[in-house]
Amino acid sequence: MSARWIRGAHAPICAVALCLLVAGPTFAQNADVGTDSTQPDEASSALTADAVNAADMDAGDAAMLRTQVLLDRVHFSPGEIDARGGTNTTRALAAFQRHQGLDASGELDARTWEALTAGNTPALVTHTLSAEDVAGPFAALPEDMMAQAEQASLGYETLLEALGERFHAAPALLRRLNPGTEFEAGAQILVPNIGEAAPLAEPARVVVSKSDSVVRLVDAQGEVYAQFPASTGTERDPLPIGEWTIDGVATDPTFHYNPDLFWDADPSHAKAVLPPGPNNPVGTVWIDLSKPHYGIHGTPEPQNIGKTQSHGCIRMTNWSARRVAEVVKPGMTAVLEE
Questions:
Q1: Of the candidates 194, 141, 140, 142, which has an alpha carbon nearest to the alpha carbon of residue 163?
Q2: Looking at the DSSP assignment, which residues form a beta bridge with residue 334?
Q3: Average pLDDT over residues 187-194
Q4: Residues in CB range of 239: below 8 A, 6 or more apart
Q5: How far, in Å, CA of 34 to CA of 32, rounded?
Q6: Does residue 67 contact residue 108 with C-beta atoms inside 8 Å?
Q7: What is the tens place of the pLDDT at every residue in 80-122?
Q8: What per-residue confidence (pLDDT) applies to 27?
Q9: Contact predicate 253/273, CB 8 Å
Q10: Handedness of CA 200, 206, 211, 214 (dihedral sign)
């Protein structure tokens, strides 16, 4: 992974070698990677607003979905909300429990459920699709880097992909929540209620944990008050452990691809500039670090965050990267730790 920050009269650009996710070690929980299809058991267990919003902690998928949405609202993100759970949800629960002064088991118990559901905030709400929501344009994108460089933008491929990112949800979950629904203007759909319970505060420092695969925001008293799943380096491209500073933020960055800086690049590739967009290899935001060629950024593959590795940089879902980008500033400390 390689990147550098370019400043000039125009919008900042991150010039990076490819930072795509790569296959990591096998995780016991790899089944939690959301798929884009509806399983037979899902069809028999409808996730209605009434079932989810009033779910008890032992209510199966309804309880899991309620848990994930409520964790997301208080800035302990489970990553892509899918009603399935897995490693990201377990880590989010453990961080929430520590924040609440509870036993950080990562398991949903009575005291954690009580703290999480206090206030009885609905986990699912109705959203009416507008003409703007469905306008697109939506188009399939080529996989080849050289072909991507020829596109006008790297936008969403489908409406469900766009809605999934907007509501922090797996596209398969949106279909499950809205069986038989035509996703068109005027349609009312059920979506996760991902509005913030409270504004996210500015941190004293940002901490990236390699072992836990998370980005944490830490206040001046050393308390972790927000946590987001992340994918970090590999043995070949390890996370640069140490204390660095944040140099700046670029939104909707272009991607300067240099195959010479990427160990497994296609030998037929040449240097190229890929246009911005949510399916850009670094997503919709780049947080530049003082360690040359490294940053915290988004991804075109939110379902993989925290479950696979990356070529050196710190990858987050686009929505989590944007939230962090909104509260950090140049000169702030970023600690990258084992």
A1: 194
A2: 206, 244
A3: 98
A4: 208, 210, 232, 233, 312, 314, 336
A5: 6
A6: yes
A7: 999 999 999 999 999 999 999 999 999 999 999 999 999 999 9
A8: 26
A9: no
A10: positive
Strand pairing report for 295-297 and 314-315: parallel
In whole angstroms, how far apart are CA 293 and each of 160, 247, 287, 312?
A: 33, 12, 11, 9
Q: Which residues does 221 contact at the CB level (< 8 Å), separation at least 6?
A: none
Of the candidates 64, 83, 71, 292, the residue with the CA atom closest to the CA atom of residue 175: 83
3-state helix/strand/coil string of 63-82: HHHHHHHHHHHCCECCCCEC
- Exposure pattern of 206-218 as b/e (b: 16+ CB <10 Å)? bbbbbebbbbbbb
Closest by CA to 260, choosing from 251, 247, 269, 252, is 269
Instruction: Convert the pLDDT of each residue in 238-284 to its tens digit.
Output: 899 999 999 999 999 998 877 776 666 777 777 899 999 999 999 99
* Mean per-residue pLDDT, 14-43: 37
245 bridge partner residues: 333
Identity of the residue numbered 236? R
State how far the Cα of 42 lies from the Cα of 92, in Å rounded to an integer.
Answer: 24
Instruction: Provide the CB-side half-sphere exposure for 316 (13 A, CA).
Output: 26
Residue type present at position 139: A
CATH class of 3-26+199-337: mainly beta
**pTM for this predicted structure:** 0.87
Q: Where are the domains of the chain?
A: 3-26+199-337
pLDDT tens per residue across span 35-50: 333 443 444 478 999 9
Cis omega before residue 137 (within 30°)? yes
Angle between helices 61-73 and 110-117 (to 10 degrees): 60
